[in-house]
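user: Kindly work through both lines:
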Amino acid sequence: MGKIVDVLKSGKILVSDGAWGTFLYEKGMKAGECPDAWSLNRFDDVVDIAKSYADAGSDMVESNSFGASYYKLEHFGLQDKAADINEAAAKASRKGAGPDKFVISSIGPTGKLLVTEEVTEEDLYNAFKVQAIALEKGGADAVCIETMSDADEAVCAIKATKENTKLEVITTFSFDKTVQGTYKTMMGLSPVDAAKAALEAGSDVVGTNCGNGIERMIDIVKEMKAAYPDAFILVHANAGLPENRDGKDFFPETPQMMADQVEGLIKAGTNVVGGCCGSTPAHIAAMKKVVDDYNAKHAA
């Protein structure tokens, strides 16, 4: 199947998948339950989520391993199962996606802060190393280190993957719009700072996920692309900005509303288009149609 970066070098725009958490709740996950443990205990349900995105047209699917680091699993007393859970997560996505799609297994933040000396860089490196090795063993093609806000933590994850596996690395950060109109992560990183840290550490693809709908993602991509014109950029956008309805987050953008903004995202410099919170297979299918039309028009 080759490598993701080789496909991107050809100029083809790829489509990623959408939200996973919502699916798990629809399948019966209870509040306070460990989502990542479903990869062991409810394997077939996790396979079904990956398959639903592959069937919707995703060229790549993530895995149910966002919170499967030692430190996140420790909350559930499952830290000793980290390798098993990550391997199962990658296997589930591989089975659901089939042999012709990329599996970009998810690695999320640990929830530990280096700045407060809760952990050391070595601690984080070792935790991410366990994940990366297990994800590769389970059949992943790449890791998607996502929802990052701290450059040092992201770099630990990138290096742990690059130095211990042959997996490609995608690194995305989550940004909030400030009152000044700029974009910053929770730890104060700008899009350019975030991209710089990830690229210098060896990430093959950079980008942004969560926190914003496509409209704001376009601004973030433009900043990254202006500073790093040769970088490959992935965007996992929310289905709009969340609205609180009856105490729950509701994401207002329909599949067509997201699809209508995809061409603008591509023109800003995005190479991989996908969804995050609030997005469903229906959203991905609508976005896929736009991407297919774009690829057909711009085929070499």
